[in-house]
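Quick question about two entries, pasted in order.
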Amino acid sequence: MEVMEDGNLMDKVIILIQRDLDYYNEKQAILQEVICPAVVGGLLDFPRFVSFASMKLVLWWEEEYVAAYRKSSGFIRKISRNTEDDLETIGDCEVVVKDSDPKRFVQAISNSAKNLLDHLHVVTQEALDHADLTVLTGTIGAASLLKNCLWFYIQSTDNTTKDLTGILQETFKKYQEMEEALAERLLDLHCRLVTLYILQDADCLDWENTSPFFEMERGSYVIQMWWLYMKGTREDLWNTVPPNMAKRVFVGILNESLTILTVRYVQATPSEHRTKLLIADLSNLLLCVAQLLPSVCDSAEEYMGISLNNKSKILRDIHSKCQELLYCLILKGAPLDILKRLFRKGIEKIDLLKCKTSGPLPWICFSLPHLFKQIPKNVLKLTEFPGNVEITLELMVLLAQPQPHWSLLLKVLGLKDCRLLKILVELCSSECKEEMKVGSSKKEICSGFLCIRDGQCEKEALSSSFQLYNLFRATTDVILTIGSSKEILKVFLEPICQKNDWAKCLDRRNVWNQIKPAWFLSIMDLARPILPKTIKTTIDAIKTGASMYQAMAIILVCFSYFWDCLDSTLFKVTNMIQDVVPSDITPLSNSVLLQTLISALYSELVQMSQEKKHIKIAGHPNEETATFDGTNSSENEIALALAEALCSIDEDNKHTDQIDQFMEEAKSSVEMSEFEEKGSARVACTQMCDNLVGNMLTNQHGKKNLKVLYDFIRSNSDWVYQQLSTGGQKSGLKPDKVSPPAESLLFTMFHIGAKPFDEVLSGNWRPDWMSLLQTPMGLCTEKMSTHINRRWEFRDIKSSSLTAQDIQAINNISSSLKSGQ
């Protein structure tokens, strides 16, 4: 859609809106643009797609902002082309230098925003009239983008123009209200579709019919179609609207539809031949909810129904309805013989009426039998669950989210003494080529709107070997970040020592070798904070006449001077490696710590000496050839000579005393440090975990590590779950490291997760009715009586299917229930 780029903002906006409306009338669709994946979500909940009109308006707004304030608002990250000029590139458009001021800017923004808001109202009404979800989600994206842009403008307004922010705040509030209203309309539309078209089937709902449904070979169509609709809706929401909004809408659909289903099945009075249909439907329904619920939870505790706070009111409602469905299932579906045995002890001794103190709710335990079948009833805390159940539950929640949940990822990696990290390290150390020179790879350049070109959103076309290599780096970095000394030893050091020649990178003869194992590069990274200053100090000294001998001494002085700037993990991990280095490996001065520092410094100097004399200007139309002089060639030569001299820093005992002194100072510094021994237990604390993740996300390397781990686990979830279920033992299933497994529509229709529908009817799943009836659930006698009296045996006591003993048992149970009320 062509629009003019020159002229007054209001004139351009009027034409833009008209063109957008013409496009809608012709195509019955909105022209949409993709947002950069790295920007989607976050605190402001950025959308995944925006309309072309909203994107152009944001670009024009930013031009007006720069013209008025002579600086960027920060909404569109800019890449400078001229370091001497404050005016910089905005997106793909050059800033048009024009006369403006804050007052004119605010007036133009508010007027143009009002015009587009009116336009969005028109398109939204059309979408609602035609139940067009695609157009509706498109308008949601547009409203969300413009709302976030206005928020940035309000935040970046300085004190001299505070009186103008009132106008912007009013405009921001209108877009915020529109976005919330559209989310409500989207929820309402889905609820109406579920109510009117999905949950209606006269044959399935005919409970009093004396003939069996589908010859007792399957459950009702209603539950199956509801499951398929909910799965498809979740996928659509996850891929269209802003992530946080997607969760709110989806949990609303789930809660509303469960309300209808709960009332329906609780009030059902099935005949003898329809009781099996009720049992099949209720078991299928609970299994379905157990698969859908992780998508709207933030932790395994919420998923289990433990410690639900005020913000989880809707989750409490869902758990309560599922509990009602479980009551209905066990009291209407349990065989009469089981009820006889239960009531023989007297109603006062029935455990079902006792209150459950804490722990997972019974309905979730029933719906996840493969996880809870071997957990003792007296185990109530999630952290006390045997095996890897806690990790599995947290992982289910993590992988069901509409966007990566970095804090939860770090928590999952640190649970049970970093058990999942150990599985990944063992995989990498056994299958990854230990030494690999990581070269360039083909990257798909992100073309999404608002992309900041930091590489985090680019997809690399890597071989499986490269992926394992990157995974090895990421896992090692994380264990060094969160692990205690004991965990580093068990999770990291012991697995890598299993491989032959694992320590050859630690030999003094291999300082120059730039082909290093992934785990050693991670340890070298711990030394990198002090390298730039060390290099600059040493090169400056050489420029003023210092010899190479003096340069080596200066380097050792810098190591001692800057040592406190390094994480104490560097000393601890190198000290542990020192104890297990094979006898045929000789590090520099027999010190793994010195070998690591010199190797890191050597790599930095070699990289510096090989840098080109020009730097690419990212975002330039001719990026490959646009360069400017940025490196002094004499420094390159000095760096190369300095690097070669490092290889013999400990020869001829020239610096032995200085090296020994540095080692003693480093050891004393660590021993005297008041820094508390860290460990993965810290990630169990939400606040501490958030702080750790925040620190990792502040640098590109930390971001990449988390992304690599998340992508691998998501793409190989089946393999990860199997490793957790087998305790990390070897299995025939191999990770593919390519993409998440895609379920076909046919598979989704007839399977709940990995389990097929109607397992109760087929006999593959036999509920332990007595165990369920002996589980404390806090059920009142009145509710128990209501459910039992709706059983066909109690309503048709004269049925020929009942024996005299059955009739007597029914009368006894009825008497017990009446006496207990």
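Here is the second entry:
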Amino acid sequence: MSSGRWRPFVPAAYSLALALLIVGPLLGSGYLLLRDAVSTPRSYLTDSALGLGDAAPRAVPQDALLAVLSAVVDGGLVVKAILVAALWAAGWGAAVLARRMLRASTGPQLVAATVAVWNPYVAERLLQGHWSLLTGYAALPWTVLAAQRIRASSRNTAAPGNAVAPRNTLRARNTVADWAILAGCLAVAGLTPTGALLAGCVALTVAGRRNIPWTLALWCAASAPWLTATALSGAGAEPSDPAGIAAFAARAEPGLATLGSLAGLGGIWNSDAVPASRTTLFALAATAVLLVLVAVGARNALAAGDPATRHTRRALLAVAAAAIVLPALGATGWGVHIGEYLVTRIPGAGLLRDTQKYVALAMPGFAVCAAAGCRTVAEAGRSRGGSVGTPLTATFFIAALILTLPDLMWGVGGALRPVHYPSGWQHVAARITAPGDVAVLPAGMFRKFPYSGRAPVLDPAPRMLPRDVLQTGELPVRGRTVSGEGARARTAEHLLLSGAGAPDLAARGIGWVLVERTTPGPLGDSKTTLAQLDPVYSDDDLALYRVPGATDLRPDSHTRHRHTAIAAHILWALLLFAAPAALLTRRLRQRTAAGEPTTAR
């Protein structure tokens, strides 16, 4: 087989290699447990997993998907597979986007893939534990491609002289397939609410004005799990703590103002979730390399090509500019005041408080411009009689991008590594069989276990146990505490710390108390309460108590709400399979039209 036939697969193989180079240490036995990332051997389809708990549904449908899959496959393997697939898809999608938007050769495609995978945004979100957000990030270039095809097909359908019946039938089939592919992209991105918002913005921008109603309807369907959970639970209808705006504002890096940090795809609010190279003036050099490469190709990306793709490229650059400028403005004094005003008056506006998340929207535009920049430099060298071709130019740019962020390699400086849970977690989960929610000690949502490393981690109990675990949602950020939505959890925590009696817990539907012994945190007078409870299990790591007389206090509408939430998740799952089904159908149709057999040779 000729090498030319393999060439389209080179960007895919290269992107997979980058993904494995980043997450390599995590692929050993064990589980991801780093700040907000919690993977467990098995999780359960609790009310919280469906988004029906006290807290806003921020991990929907992620938690429900893991609950279903971990019943048959180890949950740690599922998370690792999704994470590798996300990074792989991000790079490959950026390469395909460069090929479709610019007709770029292999070298510039690899530059685009490197920009998409090897950047501070990916490093910081991995360190923060936002593995599922990276699925929404990875879906962006594919969403652009699907929306662009829909826009092009709608323009062709509207053009005069297209009344030939067979051609119209084929075009209609292709249009249906294009919409199905877009549905799949939006569903993949919709693994988290933020990912859904990212992909929705891109789809609505690229698909064209006449397709906005259908695109919006499709986005709502792909976002059904968390939209439904918000409506049923009412958690998202409450105002958010305005302290979260300043706490989660984008942050300036050394040598860079906030705007420069965001333009370099960095600037996360948590200074501890940053690669070491971004804590020095090296961040300035890395940002300069990226922005120079993007700036060199921007003019070519705006001007070259046919009108349809040129319009899309301009739209991507406009989205990129907004994704950088708006979070930078949101970090200013008056920007913080506006944000505080919005979250206290508009339900659900708290979803926008971590503004640096939305810098992800710059990735497709940056990737296309970087590919154009590589091609521009190579063409300029050839026009001046130079001997440096596109492959060498691409190699130089790829090396510059990787070497200016060296600590992304091999687990972001080793921080991304598997952990092993004590066996006591499985014993505790097996013993929780009676009704009642679970309250946890010490107070607070974050833990520092001996086996989890130096960084604080989210308590794994809500994903380990088969009953709902009450969590306040309070987040310690930059020396302050941002309040959460968990009213019942705050009450339970107060009762435990004040040494309340067992009947007080039972009256509030609390059936279990779990004590995590190897992590620091406030215990208050909880010994007084624990002395009134029935010990069920105890070892060096965990102790489980049963609250006497506890019953299930869920309202009569609870079962109906669960069924509705599950139906929304099923709709999302169906859309998730729409893209591969459409691609397979299109491929079979193409082979049939070309006279090839539809079965494998």
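Reply: The first strand starts at residue 31 and ends at 34. The CA atoms of residues 277 and 283 lie 6 Å apart. Hope that helps.
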